[in-house]
Amino acid sequence: MLRILLLGALLLPATAMAEATKSCADAPNQMEANACVADQFTQADAELNRLYGVLRAKLDATGRRNLVAAERAWVTFRDLECNLRTGYDTQNPDQNGSIAPMLTSMCQTELTRQRSTDLRAQIKCPGGDLSCTP
């Protein structure tokens, strides 16, 4: 199982790995490394939620409904994609090892930051304005 988790870590983009390693490298143990990387995810998620609110305020009722549906689908995608990338076993979570929370948080942080970039572009061009270029 550890091989699968380590392979998953190798599949994570180098930038996400480098950032997490750089800022959490001084953690004295795996538990604190997990907590450090989880904090990075919390910050990325807070920014995503802020951008979501900004975009939501710019949309009409149809746009808001579409945004809610898109975000729900995106969260499901993010979590499943991170399971795929890290080799996380949802059927046997006790077999994932102590590094699993760190790998999952690193993946979720990366994808959340990508989604924030997408929302920033939509804030510039909300509601399907095809004449707008972000």
Characterization of the model:
The chain has helices spanning about 1-10, 15-25, 30-60, 60-85, 100-125. Helices cover about 75% and strands about 0% of the residues. The protein starts with a helix and ends in a 10-residue tail after the last helix. It has a domain at about 55-120. With about 130 residues, the protein is mainly α. Helix 4 runs antiparallel to helix 5.
pLDDT < 50 runs, ≥5 residues? 1-12
Q: What is the overall shape? A: elongated
- The end-to-end distance, rounded to whole angstroms, is 43 Å
Strand segment tally: 0
**Cα radius of gyration in angstroms:** 17 Å
Separate helix tally: 5
Helix percent reads over 70%
Structural class: mainly alpha
Order of helices and strands: HHHHH
Residue fraction in strands: under 5%
On the 0 to 100 scale, the average pLDDT is 84
What composes the largest sheet?
none
List keywords for this structure.
single chain, 134 residues, mainly alpha, 5 helices
Write the layout of secondary structure elements.
Elements: H1 2-11, H2 14-24, H3 30-58, H4 61-86, H5 100-124
Helix pairs in contact: 3-5, 4-5
Summary of the model, kept short:
This protein has 134 residues and is mostly helical. It has a domain at 55-118. It has helices spanning 2-11, 14-24, 30-58, 61-86, 100-124.
